[in-house]
Amino acid sequence: MKLHGIIELTVAGERVLRAPGFWDKVKEAFGGEPDLRTDTVRASLEATAIVEAVRGALSRLGATNAISLVIDDQVLFQDREGRPDDFGDLFLAFHDNAPVFGGSFRLLRLAAEHEEAGLHLVIETIARSEHPVEDPAARVVVAGRVRDFEPRQGEDGESYRLRVEPLARDAPRLEATSRQFESFIARLGDSLRAAMPEAEVRVLEAKALVEKPSQRPAKPAPPTSRRYDPYAYHYRSPLDSIVSVVMWSSLLSMGHHHPDVVVVDQDQDQDSTGDEGNPSDDGDGGEFEGGGDDGGGGDFDGGDFGGDF
Fold first, then answer.
1. Residue range 126-154: average pLDDT?
2. Does the structure show a pLDDT above 70 at 51?
3. Average pLDDT, the chain
4. Which of 119, 170, 180, 273 has the fewest CB neighbours in a 10 Å radius?
5. Is residue 139 situated within a structural domain?
């Protein structure tokens, strides 16, 4: 079972203007006012404000374990050793580079992780200073797994399956896991509102997903997509397909008494072939477009961090 949540942050901004063309100049010469507005908004965002706000919001929830900070294709911090409670180290690394990266930016990605009530959560903030009118300036994507479902060191596929099958059939426990995740997303939204009073903070989704097994390999969604799974990006495991099969089999065996989950296919789109899960969910939704990567997993439309979303 995969846990997936999205919180959108919208801030004030102004339309980006294009350079006037020939007919714009002709129109202006005859007293007209050409519309030079584009479909892009330049948000009132600075990297320093985002890093400080996200750090403050996560700290209120006890989330102090940083993973990485990447701004405009520059890795400013990466925890390669898995050290706990190192958000302070990320903050110091950022401030050492603040004269260069503390102001305007094209693309910022800040990833952290947190554990509570048996959940292992990866929280990634993806922000851009210029974005399409219909999109938010930033998204906080939270993805998680139940800690007991994670592979243990030295565990082979068969041993893993035998261990997690009983856990996957425990419907009350799975239901409690889903409710705990929803609670965390709600608390994170409240904490972000307190840390960024100038922003409109909206919880877009918080749900548990069961992936329908497929013979084709899963194609990771880019970080710009609402389907992006930061947990899989930072903690991809060869045993992921096994847990999908186990969870799917357990869901079918529960009949109509299964927990409140959403059945998705390998692209994380809601499965439309049956009535399992929560059929009221509307699936993927929109995507951010373009961008780059930080060298650790999915890419931004095949380019580098410098491109437009």
1. 85
2. yes
3. 77
4. 273
5. yes
Percentages of the chain per state (helix, strand, coil), in multiples of 5? 30, 25, 40
Write out pLDDT tens, residues 244-267: 666 656 655 555 555 566 766 656
Q: Are 292 and 286 in contact (CB under 8 A)?
A: no
Q: Looking at residue 259, what is its pLDDT?
A: 57
- Examine the pLDDT at 161 and tell me if it is beyond 70: yes
pLDDT of residue 253: 58
**Is residue 132 in some structural domain?**
yes
Query: Average pLDDT of 71-86?
Result: 91
Q: Is residue 58 part of a domain?
A: yes
Q: What phi and psi values does residue 87 have, to the nearest 5 degrees? A: -60, -30
Domains contained in the chain, number = 1
Domain range holding 214? 2-17+37-264
Q: How many CB atoms lie within 10 A of CB 263?
A: 23
Is residue 105 domain-resident? Answer: yes
As to burial, measured by CB atoms within 10 angstroms (0-12 exposed, 13-18 middle, 19+ buried), residue 191 is buried
Residue 122 Ramachandran class (φ > 0 left, ψ -120 to 50 alpha, else beta):
beta
